[in-house]
Specification:
Helix content: 40-55%
Number of strands: 4
Oligomer: single chain
Distance between the termini: 78 Å
CATH architecture of one domain: Orthogonal Bundle
Order of helices and strands: HHHHHHHEHHHEEHHHHE
CATH class of one domain: Mainly Alpha
Strand content: under 5%
CATH topology of one domain: DNA polymerase, domain 1
CATH superfamily of one domain: Photosystem II 12 kDa extrinsic protein
Number of helices: 14
């Protein structure tokens, strides 16, 4: 029964067979004609050279108009004592910076870091980028008094920005100060330095923790509020032991770990991790130069190792 069913399925009448043959001949004829027509009737070629020239000219113009990306200059800062220039350098958009300054101009003050998240327009990503660099002094710092009647007998910590006034310090304090190693000094020892008050002492220690230690006394200039005259006055009392640095492996550090380092930042940290994922582990300083600015790389290298 099965065999008969199959035979009936593939059995054709004489007319059906003639139709199938005619259809195959027509298909074959159309295929041959399709192959021969292009040989006898050439197709017109469209000239795209003018259009390509216009596109290239536009791309060159657009590339010139794109501003070069400048490396962020993020240092430890007091959110209650910033200006628009410093906020811009740290990557804060102009609208958010304007809202920030309006808040300060109206007498507002941040008592803790979390208060910065309430600025209109502040995003969690931007706050994460700034978080490790925010320093709000715990002690109340009053404004420096002006005029002839300024009372310099009051404690030095009561002056604005914890400024350095070495000539108003007791001679006994000057005499008992000896050189301190920056990476091992605690806040009590720092307070023994002429002109270093609680605010600057906390900034020195906090910045030391962010860096992983000081390898050069000159790094104190990077601390927020440390002006040239301040540095000149205190540098003579410090030494820096580079063997005390905390070294990290650039090939295993996460974006968060890299981003918290003052010489990297979160934007560069993402670039480092993306390049590492694409090309593999870094083996030398030259590998990092593709994503880290030369000045930042020179300062960063003492903290980096490339091997396990």
């Amino acid at each position: 029964m099965k065999v008969n069913w199959i035979r009936e399925l593939f059995s054709f009448s004489k007319k059906e067979r003639s139709g199938i043959v005619s259809l195959l001949v027509i298909i074959f004829f159309l295929i041959v004609v399709g192959k021969l027509i292009p040989r006898f009737i050439p197709s017109e070629k469209t000239d795209f050279s003018k259009w390509e020239a216009e596109v290239n000219a536009y791309l060159k113009t657009a590339k010139k108009q794109i501003p070069e990306e400048k490396p962020l200059q993020i240092v430890v800062f007091n959110p209650n004592e910033v200006d628009s220039a410093r906020l811009t350098e740290m990557g804060v958009p102009s609208k958010i910076a304007a809202n920030w300054l309006k808040y300060l101009e109206k007498g507002g003050r941040f008592r803790d870091k979390e208060g910065i998240q309430r600025i209109y327009g502040m995003t969690s990503a931007l706050y994460e980028q700034l978080d490790s660099f925010i320093l709000i002094p715990q002690t109340s710092v009053s404004k420096a008094r002006e005029g002839k009647n300024a009372n310099f007998e009051k404690p030095i910590t009561q002056y604005k920005r914890d400024s350095i006034f070495p000539k108003y310090l007791p001679k006994s304090k000057k005499e008992r100060v000896s050189a301190l190693e920056l990476n091992n000094a605690d806040s009590v020892q720092l307070l023994e330095i002429p002109g270093i008050g609680p605010v600057f002492a906390s900034r020195i220690i906090r910045y030391r923790n962010l860096l992983g230690g000081y390898y050069n006394v000159g790094q104190l200039k990077e601390i927020y509020g440390m002006r040239e005259e301040n540095f000149t006055a205190v540098a003579q009392y410090f030494t820096a032991d580079p063997t005390s640095l905390k070294i990290f492996n650039i090939n295993f550090a996460t974006v968060k770990e890299l981003g918290r380092h003052p010489y990297i930042g979160f934007r560069t940290a993402r670039k480092i991790c993306n390049l590492r994922d694409k090309k593999g582990k870094f083996s030398s300083q030259e590998d990092l130069s593709a994503v880290v600015a030369s000045d930042s790389l020179k300062r960063l290298i003492p903290y980096v190792k490339f091997t396990q």
